[in-house]
Amino acid sequence: MEAGVKADIPELDAECGGACACGTCHVYVEEAFLDKVGFAGEAEQQMLDYAESPVQENSRLSCQIVVQDELDGMTVRTPAAR
Ligand code: FES
Fold first, then answer.
1. Which of 11, 22, 48 to mutate to test the pocket of ligand 1 (most atoms within 8 A of CB)?
2. Range of the domain at 26
3. Is residue 70 within 8 Å of 32, Cβ to Cβ?
4. Contact 22 CB / ligand 1 (< 6 Å)
5. How many domains are contained in the chain?
6. Using an 8 Å Cβ cutoff, are 25 and 61 in contact?
7. Is residue 82, in this structure, part of any structural domain at all?
8. Collapsing DSSP states into helix, strand and coil, what is residue 5?
9. What's the predicted TM-score (pTM) here?
10. 49-80, pLDDT tens digit by residue?
C-alpha cells in the first residue's frame, strides 16, 4: 500500500493510512504469488466485505501485505477506477 501511495496510484486511496479500517487499498494478487503472500485474515476479510469493488479469492488489502524478499516480482491489480 505504501509503495502504491508513493507512486500516486489513483485507485489506492488508503484512507485509513494502513489501519485495516477502510478497505480503500483493495488489490488483486497475482495467482502465482497467492501461496507466498497468504490469504486475508479474519479482520481483513471483514473489512473486504465493505470494499466497493468485487471481492475475489485473490483479494487482499494491500496495507496488510508485508513486503518481503520472496514477493520480489509480484504484481497486483487494482480494482477498476471509481
Ligand atoms: S489503507 Fe485502509 S484498509 Fe488498507
1. 22
2. 2-77
3. no
4. yes
5. 1
6. yes
7. no
8. helix
9. 0.91
10. 988 899 999 999 999 999 999 999 999 999 97
